[in-house]
Structures
1.
Amino acid sequence: MSELTKLTIAAARDALRKGEVTSVELTEACLAAIDKADALNAFVHKTPEIARERAAAADERIKAGDAPDMCGIPVGIKDLFCTEGVPSQAASGILRGFVPQYESTVSQNLIDAGAVMLGKLNMDEFAMGSSNETSVYGNAVNPWRRGNDDTALTPGGSSGGSAAAVAADLCLAATGTDTGGSIRQPAAFTGITGIKPTYGRCSRWGVVAFASSLDQAGPMTKDVRDSAIMLRAMCSHDPKDSTSADLPVPDFEAALTGDIKGKTIGIPKEYRMDGMPEEIDALWTQGKEMLRDAGAKIVDISLPHTKYALPAYYVIAPAEASSNLARYDGVRYGHRAKLSQGDGITEMYEKTRAEGFGKEVQRRVMVGTYVLSAGFYDAYYNRARRVRTLIKRDFDDAFAAGVDAILTPATPSSAFGLGEMAEADPVQMYLNDVFTVTVNLAGLPGIAVPTGLDRQGLPLGLQLIGRPWEEGDLLNTAYALEKAAGFVAKPAKWW
Amino acid sequence: MSIDEGTAAKVAKLARIKVDPADLPVLAQEFNTILGFIEQLNEVDVEGVEPMVSVTPMRLKRREDVVTDGDQQGKVLSNAPDAREGFFAVPKVVE
């Protein structure tokens, strides 16, 4: 039975349609794997009753011949998605006990497609973090280890639980969200595939907001084909999200021909960072050669404002967060502090937010408050938004010059140890997103593909960045890279 | 630009987050680290560049001005820390 959890979505879909397996069997296998994997702390709210009910319904649908691709596929849902009747607290203490009375559009789309929710997945609090260490549930743990060394490693963040769960075969796939790299960095740290689509592809309705102009949902899966299948099911135009794109959602899987002959792949010189580990550089060179061997034309390009992406992000994202998180005031939902005699409404706000928000969230809300405050708005917030315009222009220029996709490393290192960054200043942790954050600022699709192992035996990934709305083409290039890299390594089971 | 403890306290107040006075020096130092990082933006020539409003140029949709939802008082109040008689309850706001 345990082998069932290792299936890809595509393999499970085909087996389900042929009647070789039922969704109930797949789901039971996943539930059993989840129960044995508490050491990974990936699933933080398990929903076995919902899973069994939806699996049985999916089997009926499959039998009736009305089965979309995701029908009967057991998946995990990041805790950032509001799920009706199931605790959804964005890994924050301030939403302890919050049970949404509605379903996010993305998770509803998955329900409509027949997918089976196994439970909610760990993450950094309000998706603010790169190591899953800011979660109120405690750290999610990477199933990968450095050889025989039993140091617990981070699965990355913020979608750390999603990454750990997929890499450890607790589910066939999971949802993630990505504001600065939160799908792609954890995917790279755990040897799985994750795509952040173009801003506007997935509805943000019902996804707890962090930075609304950057947030996008996307799938985290075992391979590129699965990302194509699941992304299609997650996307839709949604009148409830005014920034959701009113564009048809193509069949992304149909784009996977593996033929990239004549495509132009840009290699941005600014992504060669000082002090970048040699292994990352070597991996990048290999990726370039693989794509060239597959028939693509490799060209050097320049994205001159790359250096300013992280500083711009750390103005824009906290500014939006300070506004979005103003709603957590102890009045309508979530935690409210116990008040002392004589405390008024201001004390209620201040105590509630001090108790409910973790340190990193407090820090970002306050930085955001500062950069938006009178006298600094122009110097910080407006300047950052101008720089953002320039960052997007860099990409526009590259695409206008004929580049189809851009190849970069996904992360500046492999997974690091949990706690290893505890003494570092916050900026050191922010540097994890150095290769991914530009993509959010420019609203582009980006995908992380596992392409190798470092000498400690940990997975490393490369990132491909595509033209807006051309996820199909991007996925196809990723598919060619995946085929050439032939990454099949799995973490040795210790949990 | 350097943030002192007084400024840190003011920012905490604006953000409605209670901070223990003993924690202000560390907080001010963290702000300075982050703002020092952000200062790099001053190197960029942004003369004549418009601040980005939306990554995809789009006109916000308009919908018909009709009631689409309502009569869900129970659901709206179901997560309230303190709900009484069909309302959210809070400490006294007006003296």
Note: Chain B touches chain A through 51 residues (CB under 8 Å).
2.
Amino acid sequence: MSRQPTPFHQNMSRRDMLRLTGVGAAGAALAACAAPVAAPDAGGDSAPAMEPVTVIATTGMPVNTFDNALERSLERLPNIAMEVNANSWGEGGWDGYSDTMLTRIAGGEQIDVIMIAIEGLRLLTAKNVLVVLDDFFAADEPANDILHNDIHVTLREMLQVDSKQYLFPFSWNNMVMYYNTAIFEEEGLDPPPTDWTWDDFLQTCLQVANVTGGADDRFAYSFWGASMFGMCAWYFNNDVSPISDDWLDSNLLDPKVAETLQFLADLILEHKVAPNPEGWDDWAQFHAGNLVMRTCGRWCIAGTFEAEFETYDLQYQPHHSGPLKTVAGTEGWGVSTSSENPEEAWEVVKHLSHSDTSIDLVKVGGSIPALRSVAAMPVFAEYGPPNTALFYESLDFAATVPSPTNFNIVEPILNRNYATIWNGERTVEEALQAAHDELQPEMDKLKQA
Amino acid sequence: MTSTALPDDRIDRQANPQKGTTLARREAWAGYLFATPALLGLLAFTALPIIASLVLIFLHYDLLTPPKWAGVENVTRLTTDSRMFKIYWNSLRLTVGATLLNNVLGLLLAVGLNRAMPWGLRYLLRTSIFFPVMTTTASLAVVWRFLLTQDRGVVNFLIGQIGLDPVPWLSSSAWALFSAMIYDVWKACGYLMVIYLAGLQGIPAVYYEAARIDGAGFWQQFRNVTLPLISPTAFFAIVISLIGAFQIFDNVYVLTEGGPGDASRVIAMYIYEKAFRGFEMGYASAVSFTLFVILITLTLLQFLGARRWVHYE
């Protein structure tokens, strides 16, 4: 049976149809652009129960770290709809992270609670992105008590700028030596002592490396080759820093900087016990037993859980000169100046800094919790190798990773020039001179700002 | 017999000259209406950003604080920016190499696949070669990064199997840009193959038949029939691949991050670095404008040059 034409079909020409479609599409577009209908006044008689305020937190950690915190928020923060999203690391570490964060904020994205580390803190405060938390702490005795009595003063002060507290410290990291205990045993080596030196380290490298250019190559050690944090793990053990103590000048021409880089370059180019870090995946290679030692923070424990790799332990970085120092950097939660609900955002900051969230962090193998009480719990030792206590113990001689306001500019300059040392294209002196020539004008700009 | 009958619409127009004009006008309005969304998109997402970036050249702007007048400071800075010149040199080498290899390989693959072969094999080969085009650049670059790693990389392992020393694909200034080029050609030549294949299939078979009758062999047919008749397609392919190569960003960004040093950094990465890492939107706009001028100039030169070598049937 054929369908009878409707009046619409009878009277509608193709041209009319096209015209109507065009008008309809334009109307739909205009309707879509129109402002949403205003919500009914919450105070009105017929108003429903108050809708929860949405507070969005952003982090560099895997967002599943906060799955439990999200679930707990439903009960503990009934008036807040909390969300946690990931902020991309961009091209680098905290420098790329800070850049991404600023771009998102400039783009008008709603971000109420921000996780940032000391490396990006000054950039964000210079751009007026973070709220000073001092008033919140002053009005909140329990939070103030935690800040002053359960968090090490070094961690607390790391997240201050001009003596103002911008972040609630959540976690921190240092850099320690991860080593494969099975290979050490196989090679008849004792675990490295706490006070081992660069010479001891080199001898160990020479003993455990087996690099012939074949499929069975085993590298003794790999280092990041880039990033302020990764490189300071070595600089600080030679009592030097790539920038001055006040973070306002280049210190790259200090002979100890060259000495440190030469030691590392020799591992690759002369002794051939370390790979060129470019493109090298030290996580996978360490877990596969193709790499015997690596330098990393506690977050690398997460990778060992994932790979079910258990034959490893930790030791401090080998030492060369000066007082014993370990590089340290702290990250915390802060309130964004762009938040329309700073009070609720503060509640989320506290919730995300809570000991329960810290314990979640410990269990996924993330950074070291800032709360001393959590680091002292059995769970901290349980989720890590035998020498896990090392992480928190080092805090007493921790030195802050250099984090000037222009960190996002400084770090790429250093990284670009380091790369030309590791591939042997430039001598350490040439690369440092080139880096210094590029870095010092940027530091001068910072001083003038 | 000569027919004096006129088409219906002409009769209609002669009877009522106003109607034809109205009809044409209506059709024109309908056309404008349909083109309006695309034009609005072009205006909002292309024309306005270009105008905005022109204005930004004369400002200091970091996205978060109000812009400040910079005068011609950003323009004069261009002349002393040695990094930019070095990076432009990288971009030029990558562009020339990638455009050349992509087009030559794309054409050769198209010629190869345009020959008689079992249909199953033809579809398998076409799909295999085109497959990288459909996959995201960044994810493939991550895979290539693993393949090309100097120590324990798959490519170097295979090279080692034939007794050669490992190649520092990503970590040497001499190789990094070339590695990016190899990756780009592997990724993009399938797209050009499809364009050339369409061009080849548009050449009437009669020309080849005539050439064969005249005794032309494969090479003579290719040189005297295929190349002239495919020249409009080649012109299009070269223009788009050259512009695309100058704008390469993501594959180098993931593969080498521009390193070692600046050895493989390309101009789009430099613009990104200035805009979204240094937050120097004014200077980034100035550098962008130089790229805009270069691309316009190159395209115009290609159009002028095309008069000499592009033959329309």
Note: The longest helix of chain B spans residues 17-56.
